[in-house]
């Protein structure tokens, strides 16, 4: 009886360990070589949630990062920005957002800044925990849109 109990306990622990490993999401990395003064729209998934990062370099060569969802319009499927005539334009309300404020401006109708990331000479990395925290803002993002 003890043998079967020990075997059952081992199987349960193995299954639980496997489940927790599957829930771990990877960090998201962007190569600095990909960045220019014009925005790069990088797709990322956090679990089943589709997300997008806006990444660019400012005039000093400093990376600027934001999540491509509008802080005010976040509940709408159209709460994302498109690059139009040198600005980011919210596809829900039409607000135009200056590129120099990407990753800097908080509150209001602008992209949600990425505040937790690491950078080195070659890459920019957003930790999985930061992606998970921001994923709620993408709950309806582009749902039903082609």
Describe this structure in words.
- With 146 residues, the chain is α+β, with helices and mostly antiparallel strands.
- The protein contains 2 helices and 10 strands.
- The chain has helices spanning 2-23, 128-134, and strands spanning 28-31, 40-46, 49-57, 63-70, 81-84, 87-90, 96-98, 111-113, 118-119, 123-126.
- A 4-stranded antiparallel β-sheet has the order 2-3-4-8.
- The longest helix has 22 residues, at 2-23.
- Residues 2-24 have low confidence and may be disordered.
Feature tags:
33% strand; three-stranded antiparallel β-sheet; four-stranded antiparallel β-sheet; 146 residues; alpha+beta; globular; 2 helices; 20% helix
List the helices and strands and how they pair.
Layout: H1 2-23, E1 28-31, E2 40-46, E3 49-57, E4 63-70, E5 81-84, E6 87-90, E7 96-98, E8 111-113, E9 118-119, E10 123-126, H2 128-134
Antiparallel strand pairs: 1-10, 2-3, 3-4, 4-8, 5-6, 6-7, 9-10
- Element-by-element helix/strand order: HEEEEEEEEEEH
Shape: globular
* Major sheet description: 4 strands, antiparallel
Content-based structural category: alpha+beta
| Overall residue-averaged pLDDT value | 82
Beta-sheet strand percentage? 25-35%
Number of helices: 2
Main sheet strand line-up = 2-3-4-8
Give the total of beta strands. Answer: 10
What does the radius of gyration come to?
20 Å
Helix content: 10-25%
Stretches with pLDDT under 50, minimum 5 residues: 2-24
Distance, first to last CA: 58 Å
């Amino acid at each position: 009886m003890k043998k079967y109990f020990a075997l059952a306990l081992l199987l349960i622990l193995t299954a639980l360990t496997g489940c927790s490993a599957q829930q771990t999401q990877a960090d998201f990395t962007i190569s600095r070589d990909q960045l220019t003064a014009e925005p790069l729209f990088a797709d990322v998934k956090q679990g089943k949630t589709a997300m997008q990062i806006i990444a660019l370099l400012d005039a000093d060569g400093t990376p600027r990062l934001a999540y491509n969802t509008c802080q005010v319009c976040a509940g709408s499927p159209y709460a994302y920005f498109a690059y139009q005539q040198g600005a980011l334009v919210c596809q829900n309300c039409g607000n135009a957002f200056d590129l120099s404020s990407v990753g800097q401006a908080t509150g209001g109708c602008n992209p949600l800044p990425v505040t937790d990331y690491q950078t080195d000479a070659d890459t920019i990395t957003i930790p999985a925990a930061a992606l998970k925290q921001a994923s709620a803002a993408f709950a309806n993002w582009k749902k039903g849109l082609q």
